[in-house]
UniProtKB/TrEMBL annotation:
<keyword id="KW-0560">Oxidoreductase</keyword>
<comment type="similarity">
    <text>Belongs to the short-chain dehydrogenases/reductases (SDR) family.</text>
</comment>
<dbReference type="InterPro" id="IPR002347">
    <property type="entry name" value="SDR_fam"/>
</dbReference>
<protein>
    <submittedName>
        <fullName>Beta-ketoacyl-ACP reductase</fullName>
    </submittedName>
</protein>
<dbReference type="GO" id="GO:0016491">
    <property type="term" value="F:oxidoreductase activity"/>
</dbReference>
<dbReference type="InterPro" id="IPR020904">
    <property type="entry name" value="Sc_DH/Rdtase_CS"/>
</dbReference>
<dbReference type="Pfam" id="PF13561">
    <property type="entry name" value="adh_short_C2"/>
</dbReference>
<dbReference type="InterPro" id="IPR036291">
    <property type="entry name" value="NAD(P)-bd_dom_sf"/>
</dbReference>
Amino acid sequence: MNIHNKTVFVTDADSRSGQAIVQYLADAGARFVLNSISDGKNIQPILDHVKQKGSEAVVINVDLCRRSAVAEALQQSSAQVGTVDVLVHNNDLMKPASVESCDEATFLEVLNHNAKSALVCTQAAGEIMAAKKSGKIIYVSSIHAEKPTGSSFAYSASKGAVKMLSHEAALTLGREGIQVNTIELGPVEGDDERFASDVSHLYEDYQYKVPSTVLGTFEDLANLVLFLASDASRYLNGADIRMDGGFLMHYLDVKMNKPWPEGGAT
């Protein structure tokens, strides 16, 4: 699979997911518009990698909740790397928030960062793609669009909103030759701390709730993004791809694939 000379807009290039995605897509020949809150300082090795691959990247730092700012950045960057062909929305802010005590500011911060930004970027990039009658929109979301975290209902609500945005956009933008799909990413290393909860045991011994006991990585995610960005996925539209190693189908403590101290297994 390759996406040679395709321009990819990544909304959070500084994150671990963003860096893995840029690296893998650069290997396949992509060019980039990279939104970086560090103005590229925290991703210099990734920018060097893009250059080594003979490609180009424009680094921007814009408010993704302002359509005019996003549209202007995409328009200005097109002179250097071309008009956007692929949008990868990977914003993923998580803050603890209980239904009983979450303040409005926290709720809106999470919703804006994860969901409103998805809408704004979809509108800005979608308009460009519609003019070309082609394009790919990929939302990197979470299994918590379907399963409560037990630690942040605001996070789950934001990912649920992205899930329905994806379905609606697939229906309407699909008429313009644009494919819209969502990756619902499951547990990766560190999620037991990230989603630590007083009311849910979901992330206790979570590695062993993946049937193979092998957690996913952001490199796994990047490979799937590459597939969705390429022509190999031409007949996928409106899909929710759960990438969790089977975690949500086997998360109860009973019969976990966890070794006993003497080396046996349940």
